[in-house]
Known about the structure:
Blueprint: H1 8-24, H2 26-32, E1 36-39, E2 46-48, E3 52-55, H3 57-62, H4 65-80, H5 83-86, H6 92-109, H7 129-145, H8 150-176, E4 195-196, H9 217-230, H10 236-246, H11 252-263, E5 267-273, H12 275-278, E6 285-289, E7 292-300, H13 307-321, E8 326-333, E9 337-343, H14 363-371, E10 378-383, E11 399-404, E12 415-419
Parallel strand pairs: 1-3, 2-4, 7-8, 7-10, 10-11, 11-12
Antiparallel strand pairs: 2-3, 5-6, 8-9
Amino acid sequence: MTLAIEDKQAKDRLLKARADMVLNHPFFASLAMRLTLKEDRTCRTAWTDGKTFGYNPDYINILPRDKLVGLSAHTVMHPACNHHLRRKDKEPEAWNKACDYVINPILLDAGLVLPDGFLWDDTYIGKTAEQVYERLIEDSGDEENSEPDPAAQKSAPDKEQKNKEDESSSTDDSENGDEKRPDPDDDMDPGGSGEVRDGQTSETTPPSGQNDTDTNWDQALVQAASNARSMGSLPKGIELLVKERFSPTLPWASLLSRFIQQSARHDYSWTRPNRRYIHQGLYFPSLVSDQLPQLVLAIDTSGSIKPVELERFGAELQAILSMNPSLIHLVYADMAVTGYEMISDQDLNLAFAPKGGGGTDFTVVFDFVQSQGINPCCLLFFTDMECRRFPSFTPPYPVLWIRTGQSGYTPPFGQIIEMLPDWL
């Protein structure tokens, strides 16, 4: 029995490729660091399951540095898009092809160089992996329905004999303690850029109780995009991917209304029967309060908010609150709280008069709410998110960030809705 010795040269080349990514492709570097390197001579190229970056050192050693960087970025994009959790009962090879067709245009647009043989088709740009997979399966079905190739039929017995020989060879290797070599006919990475394998979800936690999905890839994707954006090096394809994946498709005013209504406290009373059912001889409680007792509205006055945006926001919010009366704590803030007033449902008037114009510090608003003993049902923060100073704690109430400008940083808590310019 022989013990496999790790190929130090291959591992060093992968580590150097990651170092190159830190300098030239920080978005992909941030994600790649989350995968543990593992030598695996049983695969032809490389693979990941969302936790491990498996690689064949022989393949790694023959790749030029730029294509090794491309391989690393390609492989990590699979878990970043949750490809390792989305296959379900799909055919593995077709699923790998579909995922490659989706992410390769993004990688090439970001300036990366992929290994020779990578998959590309203009018709699949902008499609989801599931959509491409269905197309591939349909095309495969069309090919199967065509007349059989006599040469292929003739070679079938030879292939069967080859499989038997491979099984025998595999048994011999196992007995000798040698690792199984990759079979070119059993290749789940047809593009040669990194295979995606199934990862584990919370429903498939190992018996030991340890969950293999240590990385929340949705959160990792957002954080990596935010960091790269702050460095001015976020690829356009990634920006679009993040927006399509996490940005709402409904108009911001509808989402704002839904958030406020969901935050309303509903109380039922038996002392006031529901008149809708009395004529049926049924006695049910009625809804006696759907008010928001207290709501905090924070306005970023750092100077980057346009007056027309603030005016539009105030009009929409006033219409929504007229249906859900509440006591509003209006807070203006930049680096400090620059203004505060209380507005009741009797004199609802959201003609904003911002004061300030300096930098931004989100923490001052939450500290102010806590110091004043305000216990709101929710807090709405109107801002362009151009600030990294967030509270170190998660507030005990729902928070909604109404973001303008389509940029800024991602908050560690709360929900975000985009107030896009074309909706104004």
